[in-house]
Amino acid sequence: MHRPSHPGNVGAAARAIKTMGFKYLALVQPRDPDVLAHPEAIALASGATDVLEQAQCFETLSDALASTTLALALTARPRDLGPPSCDIRQAATLSHAHLCSNTSNRVAIILGTERTGLANEDIALCQRVCHIPANPEYSSLNVAQALQLAAWELRYALITPDAAPALPETGKAETPAGSLPASHQQVQDLIQHWEQALIAVDFLDPAHPKKLMLRMRHLLSRSDLTRDETDMLRGVCTAMIKTAGATPN
């Protein structure tokens, strides 16, 4: 939950995910720094206080997503520029496949603040945008209600007979670590390095960036990069910066 402003919604969110079998709740910059101990949050958690007590708070959304390999931004507003869009059921199916592909994969559903939702900068940190196909004439949902629906769709996708994440079979070679999906933090480090390289070769003017880096961010975020691929591209960045420094202007 990104910048939640109402303690009751945080408590209701804890209850919503626990009823669907989940337990990890992360808060980014909650308005009330003591929201996890707020009486209203505890009251609306209603038996899910264990989820509330174990919830983690982060200073930035990027920090909260550091260990994830697939981030889904839940939003009702269409975006002209951003990651590919899908509905919440398609997102749940995608999450199921992602989790089954490797036991180290991690999926996150991100919800924005109650009043304004997620900003474009927040969505740029995600690999997909997803929406709940509600009544187009009145699609407003409370964040805890939206989370309940998202958690239900994820649970429904994960309780199918083949839902258990694949485990290594006897005599079968394990997937090389470099072939595993890059974490959110690894991708963000690559994007920062890529920006430095583009500036070094005079492709990007930092004084007039326009939408170049935003487009680059969306490109790299949706590319499902592996750890080896991020290392390779960072090597390219290092070579670009080195070459630019050795070339007379």
Could you please describe the fold and organization of this structure?
Belongs to the class IV-like SAM-binding methyltransferase superfamily. RNA methyltransferase TrmH family. One of its GO terms (molecular function) is methyltransferase activity. With 249 residues, this protein is an alpha/beta fold. It is built from 10 helices and 6 strands; from the N terminus they run H-E-H-H-E-H-E-E-H-E-H-E-H-H-H-H. The protein has a 4-stranded parallel beta sheet with strand order 4-6-3-5, covered by helices on one side. Strands 1-2 form a two-stranded parallel ribbon. The model is unreliable at 163-172 (pLDDT under 50).
Notable features of this structure?
249 residues; alpha/beta; Alpha/beta knot; Helicase, Ruva Protein, domain 3; 2 domains; two-stranded parallel sheet; 10 helices; globular
Topology:
Elements: H1 7-19, E1 26-28, H2 39-45, H3 49-54, E2 56-58, H4 61-64, E3 70-74, E4 85-87, H5 88-101, E5 107-111, H6 120-123, E6 128-131, H7 143-158, H8 184-200, H9 212-221, H10 227-246
Parallel strand pairs: 1-2, 3-5, 3-6, 4-6
Helix pairs in contact: 1-2, 1-7, 5-7, 8-9, 8-10
User: What is the number of helical segments per DSSP (H or I, 4+ residues)?
Assistant: 10
Q: Report helical residue fraction.
A: 40-55%
What's the CATH H-level homologous superfamily of the largest domain? SPOUT methyltransferase, trefoil knot domain
Main β-sheet, spatial strand arrangement: 4-6-3-5
Tell me which CATH architecture of the largest domain applies here.
3-Layer(aba) Sandwich
Give the beta-strand count.
6
Q: SSE order, as H and E?
A: HEHHEHEEHEHEHHHH
User: Poorly predicted ranges (pLDDT <50, ≥5 residues)?
Assistant: 163-172
Mean pLDDT: 89
Which class best fits the helix and strand makeup?
alpha/beta
Gyration radius over CA: 20 Å
**What share of residues are in beta strands?**
5-15%
Principal-axes geometry comes out as globular
The end-to-end span amounts to 47 Å
